[in-house]
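Q: My labmate handed me this sequence with no annotations at all. I'd like to see what the chain might look like in three dimensions before we decide whether it's worth expressing. Could you predict it?
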Amino acid sequence: MLGRMTQSTGPGPEAADLAPEDRKIVTLARSARARNGVPEGAAVRDETGRTYVAGTVALDSLRLSALRTAVAMAVASGATSLEAAAVVSASDVVGDEDRAAVSDLGGPDTPVFLAGPDGAVRSVRPAG
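A: Here is what I predict for the chain of 128 residues:
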């Protein structure tokens, strides 16, 4: 599952080029962003195929990106690895700390998809 489009740092794959599992996490991330009215939505898929979905956490005493929240949810639920991650954001990049969290659980080759608010994937790059 990890052999597809994992090394790209340029323009993202077309929707038709995404594996169904990857399209699913992009869609889930987009839904979380829209439903919660937050700047980012994220979803990760663990080694068993389970998905974890989160939005940005912005409390007075706690601030977490959507992706770090999704990774934390996966860890708290017993996931031991990640197959892929997706972020939907108006930003043009996935931050180093976010990619590091994915790499910590899934390894440096785990693909991280970045999509715009419209759900169009703009880039995919390895977590590490």
